[in-house]
Automatic annotation (TrEMBL):
GO cellular component, one term: nucleus
Keywords, ordered alphabetically: Nucleus
Tree of life domain: Eukaryota
One Pfam family here: Fungal_trans
Keyword Nucleus: yes
GO molecular function: DNA binding; zinc ion binding
Primary location group: nucleus
Cellular localization per UniProt: Nucleus
The protein, known as: Xylanolytic transcriptional activator regulatory domain-containing protein
Domain Xylanolytic transcriptional activator regulatory: residue ranges: 166-239
């Protein structure tokens, strides 16, 4: 019998079999007051269906059968005039807020018509209502739902390019999870296998976010990354007898958690990449290559098994996401050798590492292009799309600028890759401020250095940025759709609104996609107000808060 039939989200157990305290009257009343933010049932169903069948697969934060059972009961309780769970109400609002950020064109049109409001206003409305309710919760009486809704808040903030705020929310989420003993498999007496599995998945997600934000963005770790006593999820919960080769929807996250643990083991006492010796870097790269070689066939880098993609389209995104994470991780250990002059020796193998770094950076942009092709334009807000392109391109710019001897390997390919990155960021600039500011910054960096911009033809792109014409792009070969063999709509009881097609999540041509409402970004003003030397005052729509200009070592090069 599957464990989820025993799942009770509202139950917290510790050594004394502690139960969640009954909701205080004030919180119950507050839950009633925020109900104005919840749309009619048919509209809310559309948001929840889209979340469970598409958006949730980014992190697999929520276990769909359990959530849907609670969701159906929540509406039944509301119809019967019963008191509603404040915790689940808050979680539902977070789900809706996050779902709205990634709506398809057809869903956008339907929601705008039915709700008569701007989508940005709608996602903000959900988020503000959830926040109003969330602030009434106390740390002393937390629960799994509370941790889940805080994680979704962090994911929502990332998509809104509020990266610093997201990092602070991550800290709160980690503390909530630790309060429940999730970080060490503590307080599990009386819990069944299913409940323990869900707790392990939550901690794996938090561990991944903390590791990656620390390694890639220079944020202080909030979790002791050297404490590797926590157990990874088993993933048995999602095993399928009819499709034995189908991996758990959480597999791509479990693999990332496993990778982070391995890297933190081999890093030893080193506090940063800069502190690693040449032999340690070689050892880490070898371990990363071994990890990649051992990937399940569905996630292989070369010639992956795509036989399940049609019935389970989330595998396509997860494959691209995992490949991008793996390449960015490998490049991170070689970044110091690309952002310094050749005569500024760090080890006796600097030239070898520089060549390896160039190869890896070009590989990053190759897999980032695949992720971009899959996500653009509907999911342009996904932070990994912009970050992988922008960060890698600026590293390559630094490599060329420091290459005073013109000895850099694959130099022409590097300039072409930077050119391609400008093109991708230009397209992203039509959808998000983060994409626009990243494009403008990279353009400024390229144009300031003739050794990069020569032949790039980037001038036309900047002029096109303010153009009102729309771009018609070819669709990626594999696209999202919600008509999987076991659709959430049919298997777990949510009735889809009659006006919404079961294939409404398919990516549609770019020409039908409206630009983000109320989005405006003046590139000329940005370039005038943000010379590259003034990184402390740089306003890049959020990316300046997570990305370290000083890491490029370009202070001595006038821009």
């Amino acid at each position: 019998m599957p464990g989820h039939v025993h799942w009770k989200v509202n139950t917290i157990n510790d050594g004394a079999q502690r139960k969640q305290a009954p909701p205080e009257p004030a919180r119950l009343e507050l839950a009633e007051r925020v109900l104005h933010a919840v749309p009619p049932r048919s509209i809310t169903d559309a948001f929840v269906n889209h979340f469970l069948s598409v958006v949730n697969y980014r992190y697999s934060t929520i276990y769909a059968p359990t959530f849907t059972n609670q969701y159906v009961q929540w509406w039944a309780d509301r119809a019967a005039g019963k008191r509603l769970s404040p915790e689940f109400t808050c979680l539902l609002l977070r789900v809706c807020a996050y779902s709205v950020q990634y709506l398809t064109s057809s869903l956008r049109k339907m929601i705008i018509f039915e709700m008569a409001c701007d989508l940005q206003q709608l996602t903000d409305r959900f988020s503000e209502a959830a926040e109003q309710l969330s602030q009434s919760f106390t740390a002393a009486n937390t629960c799994v739902e509370r941790v889940q809704e805080q994680f979704l808040k962090g994911a929502w903030l990332k998509s809104e390019a509020k990266i610093v705020e997201s990092w602070h929310v991550l800290g709160c989420t980690i503390r909530e999870a630790q309060e429940l003993g999730i970080d060490r498999d503590a307080n599990t007496k009386g819990l069944n296998e299913f409940e323990i599995e869900i707790r392990r998945r939550i901690w794996a997600l938090l561990y991944i976010w903390d590791w990656q934000m620390g390694a890639w963005l220079g944020r202080p770790n909030l979790i002791d990354q050297k404490n590797l006593k926590f157990k990874l999820p088993t993933l048995r919960l999602d095993s399928s007898s009819s499709e034995p080769n189908l991996l758990s929807p959480f597999a791509h996250m479990a693999l990332q958690a496993s990778l982070g643990r391995r890297l933190n083991t081999v890093m030893g006492d080193a506090q940063s990449v800069e502190a690693l010796s040449a032999n340690e870097i070689i050892s880490i790269q070898a371990r990363l290559d071994k990890f990649i070689d051992d990937l399940p066939s569905i996630f292989r880098l070369h010639d992956p098994d795509t036989s399940l993609d049609v019935d389970h389209p989330y595998l396509v995104f997860q494959r691209h996401q995992l490949h991008t994470v793996l390449h960015v991780t490998k490049l991170d250990f070689l970044k110091p050798f690309l952002t310094r002059a050749r005569d500024d020796k760090k080890t006796d193998r600097d030239d070898e590492f520089r060549a390896m770094g160039i190869d890896l950076a070009l590989d990053v942009l190759m897999v980032a292009r695949r992720l971009f092709d899959h996500e653009f334009p509907i999911n342009a807000k996904f932070h990994m799309v912009v970050f992988s392109i922008f960060d890698t391109s600026t590293i390559l710019c630094s490599a060329i600028i420091h290459d005073s001897e013109s000895s850099l390997t694959r130099r022409d390919e590097v300039t072409n890759a930077i050119n391609g990155s400008l093109d991708m960021l230009h397209q992203l600039s039509r959808s998000t401020k983060l994409g626009a500011s990243s494009y403008a910054f990279l353009y400024k960096l390229v144009q300031s250095h003739p050794e990069i911009s020569c032949g790039a033809g980037a001038g036309k792109r900047l002029r096109r940025l303010s153009s009102t014409s729309t771009h018609t792009l070819e669709l990626p070969p594999l696209v999202h759709h919600s008509s999987s063999k076991e659709s959430v709509n049919s298997s777990i009881g949510i009735q889809a609104p009659a006006s919404i097609s079961q294939t409404s999540t398919a990516i549609e041509p770019t020409s039908t996609m409206p630009l983000i409402h109320d989005f405006s970004f003046d590139v000329d003003q940005f370039l005038a107000q943000n010379p590259l030397g003034s990184a402390n005052a740089l306003d890049m729509g959020g990316i300046e808060q997570i990305w370290d200009w000083e890491d490029l070592n370009l202070d001595q090069f006038p821009c």
